[in-house]
Amino acid sequence: MNRVLPAEEPITRSVAYIKESGRRLGLRKEEIDAIIHPQETRIFRLSCKILGKAVTFSGVLCLHNNARGPYKGGIRIAPDVDIWETVELGRLMTLKTAVSDIEFGGGKTGIRVDWNYLYKLYDKKPQDREFEKIVSLDIVEYYAQIYRDLFSKHIYIPAPDMGTGPDEMAFIYNETMDPASVTGKPEGTHGWLPGRKESTGYGCACVTRISVERIMGKDISEVSVAIQGFGNVGSYVAKYLYESGAKIVGISDIFGGVYDEHGLDIEKLTEYSKRFGTVVGYEGKSISNAELLCLPVDVLIPAAAGNVIGVEEAKKLQTKLIVEAANVPITLEGMEILNEREIPVIPDIIANSGGVIASMEEYSHSLSALKTRREEVFKVLEEKLGQALDDSWDIADSEKIDLCQAAVDLAVKRVYQAMKNRRYI
Ligand code: NAD
């Protein structure tokens, strides 16, 4: 890809880790490059008519790797989407599906939406959720019309990510009328999966529990936790950890956070956040996002945006364990500092893979039309996540490397083998 683009992709964390895995596994440079770079990247323009006005959006569709199965990855709608972010997220999906050993590849869609511009254009107040919903549904409807064939032929199977949810996935289904063409569909829609909505958060809570037991030798009910982000992932991680008895002392969203050293009541906080659209103002001490990251807690769970822990943050953190619920919340340089400080990190490609594991269940049940129950989905999540952690810890122990590198080693080995089998390399 670098040969036809005047700009080079920055060295991201996954690029650095794949290079290191490739080197240690004895792969040739061309083979490593073939695993790093996307098979296809499309840049598109969506000309939409929203509430009577014509508006144009730019987007990126990254079909990263399909050696192990159809390209799989969410649709992100955000103001800061760019080509390299979408490529990085597509690559993470390739690693994620490989480390959890499910038969999907990796892909991603990013659509850039400048909300401030839209609020002004339509004379709306910022954070008008109803207006935002109209916009995101319209955008996804136009997007689905363009890429209908990719979804219908199961070449790329989208799902929700930041800025999209089950409602937008229903619009994709409306376009294809094929329940297996999209995952993360809302309850009651043909092919929906009980437990899919909660799956990323539930999976992350399982991974946290297992890691606390293994690394700290403690039960989850004995630890304190801080969570950044209270959207789909953050709110369900909080719910399931709270129900397991963990003491959640801090939670934040994009507007700020709350802290209570005795533990927050997550049920009440959820009600509050639904009512006011933020956790800010809930009983307890108001804190900033920067303060939340540096709280003296046993476990820190970044479950919001990427790159929130760089060098400066990594130097100041007071946690004993980080579980990456968000995608790439820690930069490459931040990881180096955390490794020096011996603060263990459970990588995103395991910690937040509950969503794509549930998507695999949703896809296979959509193909067969056989219904399943939430408890069965959660059981599959626990088994798959437990296996991915055990396999990665085995490599980390035998090779004397950190868990993040070990998980990438495992993924690269599997992707490489599939690419070899299919004569991609
Ligand atoms: P969401 O849009 O539902 O919620 C995001 C939350 O983070 C909100 O509470 C928002 O206020 C907060 N936030 C956003 N930017 C922030 C910032 N700069 N500082 C502090 N808080 C901020 O998104 P989500 O679906 O919960 O996704 C969160 C993260 O998890 C993303 O990195 C996403 O890629 C990753 N992820 C999501 C899924 C999924 O199934 N939804 C699966 C895997 C990974």
Descriptive overview:
- The radius of gyration is 21 Å and the shape is globular.
- It has helices at residues 13-24, 29-36, 83-99, 115-121, 129-152, 166-176, 199-216, 232-243, 266-276, 289-293, 311-316, 332-340, 348-351, 354-368, 374-399, 403-421, and strands at 40-50, 53-65, 71-78, 106-112, 156-160, 224-228, 247-253, 256-259, 285-287, 299-302, 321-323, 345-346.
- Strand 3 (71-78), helix 3 and strand 4 (106-112) form a beta-alpha-beta unit.
- The longest helix has 26 residues, at 374-399.
- The strands form two sheets. The chain has a seven-stranded mixed sheet. A five-stranded mixed sheet has the order 1-2-4-3-5.
- The chain is of the alpha/beta class.
- It has two domains: 36-96 and 104-181, 3-Layer(aba) Sandwich (Rossmann fold); 195-366 and 377-425, Rossmann fold (3-Layer(aba) Sandwich), CATH 3.40.50.720.
- The structure holds nicotinamide-adenine-dinucleotide (NAD).
- Nicotinamide-adenine-dinucleotide is lined by residues 160-163, 200, 228-234, 252-254, 289, 303-306, 325-327, 352, 355.
